[in-house]
Design a protein that fits this description.
By secondary structure, the protein is an alpha/beta fold. The protein has two domains: 262 residues, no CATH class; 158 residues, no CATH class. It contains ten helices and 20 strands. Strand 17 and strand 18 form a beta hairpin. Helix 2 packs parallel to helix 3. The mean pLDDT is 96. The structure holds zinc ion (ZN). Zinc ion binds next to loops.
Length: 462
Amino acid sequence: MKVIVASFQCESNSKTKMHPDKGDFEYFTGENIFKKLVVKNALKNAGFEIVPSIYANALPTGTVTRDIYDYYERQIIATVKANPDADGIYMYVHGSMEVDGIGSGELYMLKEIRAVTGAKPIIALTMDLHANITQELGNYADIICGYKTAPHVDQAESQMRAVNALIYCLKNGVRPFTYVQKVPMLVKGDTMLTANEPLLSLEEYTRGLERKEDVFGANLFFGHCWVDAVNTSASAVASARTEQRATELAKELADKLWSTRKEYKFLIEAESPEECVRRALAGKENRIFITDSGDNTTAGAEGDRTDILKMLIAAKPEKRCCVAGITDSDTVKALLNMEPGAPVSLAGLGAGAFKCRGKILGWAKEIIGNSVTVSFGKVDAVFTEKRSAFIEEGNFIKAGLDVTEYRVVVVKLGYLFAELKPFADRELFALSSGSSCVELSRLNLKNIVRPIFPLEDFEWKA
Ligand SMILES: [Zn+2]
């Protein structure tokens, strides 16, 4: 038997004006896709012929333009057309890819694949926990498995769950059925953490369901509030041996998730940017991190806002502070060849001194451009030529900085990544404005289906 393997992922943020180009995608073809996907051995050991298509994965960014979408999607369709005898198709997608003029990129791709293959191949998907899944998707995919952890640490396991289910169904002649149940809630992603209750128990419950012989996927999806689309919401999805079983399970999971909707709270200090700056400068801890959540580049925002930087400069702190990194290619180009100590004047920020130049790392940890750091008194600001995310110590080192020299560090993230946590004696989550603002009421979403919790408080049952 023959199985096609492909991956096309981009988490869209429709609030930003950016669009990914080819350079934003980590891209492999043929056997090289297995540098990024872990499913090869399981399929090989099961005796399947494997047809690798492409792997294309971008840092979260804006909506995908039609030409970029077509460039990757048509390669997958070409693989499908070239292998009309495929018995199965495994695809690793995000689930919140929004394509200009199309809507859900995943749904469109599945429809196009089925238009080529008809009903024959079993299609199994692995999806991100923050997928906005259309109810229609269940008509085209037979097995859907999602991450069960936030922050995500089970990407590999989630690939294997979907592929093992695919292998089982193909070997045993099972035609699974997938049911997608929308849940009308969009709770702040940063408050929905699976290491804590109620999600710890809920996710454990879904794992228990997946151990049952007739269940091939039982998953909760939290949705992705930065796509303004009709399919934007949480959902519960079940793949099972029969339509009835899948439907019952999805509705049961949906009701369970809905019943917890009011329990999600920040576990760290989450305050206005002004209050975060005040607390950081007054704090006694050795090093305090502020995350500028409204301008979170890992959630697709531009990373170019200077609000918190201005507050720090205006406060004339005694402590050494660092804001990393602010997307500003003009400033990088203008200052790149300066000597350390040279005076610098930047509009809106005032007079400072050039500190150093450095490099920035891309999605795949390769160098993608330059950075410059300017000191405004005790506040250092790192400007980057391209959008970047300072998620670990290595980003500071590449920029020419030592993160341990600072008492206050501002980064463009939601929660700190695990790699930065050892450097933070205290973490402040700034409820700032921007394309990745976590306050649903401030996002001005026009296309999402109402009512939706927490914008409305109402009774609901699946
Ligand atoms: Zn996610």
